[in-house]
Amino acid sequence: MTSSDSAQAAPQKAPAKDPWDLPDVSGLVVGVLGGTGPQGKGLAYRLAKAGQKVIIGSRAADRARTAAEELGHGVEGADNAECARRSDVVIVAVPWEGHGDTLAALREDLAGKLVVDCVNPLGFDKKGAYALKPEEGSAAEQAAALLPGSRVTAAFHHLSAVLLQDEAIEEIDTDVMVLGEERADVETVQALAGRIPGMRGVFAGRLRNAHQVESLVANLISVNRRYKAHAGLRVTDV
């Protein structure tokens, strides 16, 4: 066989996948644990307004149903366990103080689900906000340790709850840093972020990099206090 024959026989490489070719997620049911809090309620509102089916969860089902009625757009309310069971993707937006206990109690209900952790472990003192580092490394890594039967990702950390809930604002001008172990899961979360006008999901590494993403919220709080703003993030040149 000549060198030219060998070249002709060599297998052809498949073209590289376009990183912005994201899946259609419009049919997924999204649950929001902590959906009665400011961040969770804001995310639920934006996703539902974009046409996503959304269920918000709370420890008290009545409280969740009341919040869902306030949001409209077909949002439903349920207790956390029912919210987890009925959803394809579950966003964790609970307070850091209850993060571990909440997820441990829902381990079976969240099995097989794509979990999106957006919790920021923070402390506050007279100098302002500062980052806490959980034993596992980050809130997202704690979630992964507590939920071995789930596919855990991290995203939606840097969003202003004030902007999310403001019905007068049509677009949220920000990028969402998305972290995870499996490309398909990350792309699903990116696509969900992209359902919200003005928002874009950007891959930002594996879960081991979640701590610095969660910690950056402390810096944004300082920015917001100094400039009386609701700062977000944009990643350039991608």
From TrEMBL:
Keywords: Oxidoreductase. InterPro entries: NAD(P)-bd_dom_sf, NpdG, P5C_Rdtase_cat_N, STEAP_metalloreductase. Residues 1-21 are annotated as: Disordered. Residues 30-121 form the Pyrroline-5-carboxylate reductase catalytic N-terminal domain. One of its GO terms (molecular function) is NADP binding. Residues 1-14 have a biased composition (Low complexity). GO terms for biological process: copper ion import; NADPH regeneration. It comes from the Bacteria. GO terms for cellular component: plasma membrane. Gene3D superfamilies: NAD(P)-binding Rossmann-like Domain. NCBIfam families: npdG. This is NADPH-dependent F420 reductase.
